[in-house]
Amino acid sequence: MSLPVTVYRWDDPGAPQLPNSQVKPSHYIDIIKKCLVDGYGAKASLGWTMPFVSPDGFKAVFRNSSAEASGSYVQIKCKTGADPVGGVVYLQTAPLLTEYDPDWTTINCASKRFAFGGNSRITKWCLIGTSAGFYLFAIYDSKLTMKMGTSAHVAFFCGDIDSFVPNDLNRFTLLSYAAHADQISASWSLSLAYLSPVSVIGFMHESNGTNHGKIMELLSQFITSPTTTTNGVPSEFRVYSRPLISIDGYTVTGTTGINADSEGTRIGDSSLHPAYRGHVPGLIQTQAPRYSDQLWPQTSMIGGQEHWLIHSGHNGGCNFWVNMESWYD
Fold first, then answer.
1. Tens of pLDDT along 72-85?
2. What is the pTM of this model?
């Protein structure tokens, strides 16, 4: 089912802010709450709920729509339990949570723990989302162009993937470079802004709700340029594709281990843990990485719809875009 997209930005009237040199984990929780649940200014929320929050507000659980999406949960919390300037934020997902601070070792079908933030000067942000999922992007205050040069920044997706499996019970997850393993600290490289043609991006369980996780990777059809500067703007001739979410290490002849689901079926034939699970909602890749020296942010009309260009976490070119109008088409 196609879902409309809303774009929220730091420069919107009434938008919550990441105050320069004073950014705390609670500021990220506030931004996510305003975009997902409350709305701000003239912008309505995405229609998520916040079923649980700690008394101090430093831990919160959000749930996407149960009518238009999977009705799954994500916990977002301050790493230390306090709210220090420049503190790290933890994020973790599951199909079901019943409190704001669960014992994650007991949670069925949980994602790995993701870390972001960790710097007091990440100030300019954009959240692009629907009732089913969202991207959060944010960059260092002094950065003006699309290349971050390894400065602190944020770029991840959280929500329902666009799954190939009908009624996939484990389609809600966290996707970012190196989100296949628990993270302790935030890093410029732990983001969707540092992708190669094949990048590990998450950890997903079986489509029937079985707790049987495998490392997932993003397969891109076109060349990328994560560290090599490629300046300028490409021609108006655009070829674009939708990268695939795939099981990392899949081989055609393999029959055990990562190449089999929990029932022993080869993942190439499985609908429980298919070798190719689906797409990242709204994400496309164009054929020519460029834009290293171009001003941030960049948007462009591609296929008749406006798209947001994901920045480069290093000094490279950019060719991954997020649809700003409609997902799950």
1. 999 999 999 999 99
2. 0.97
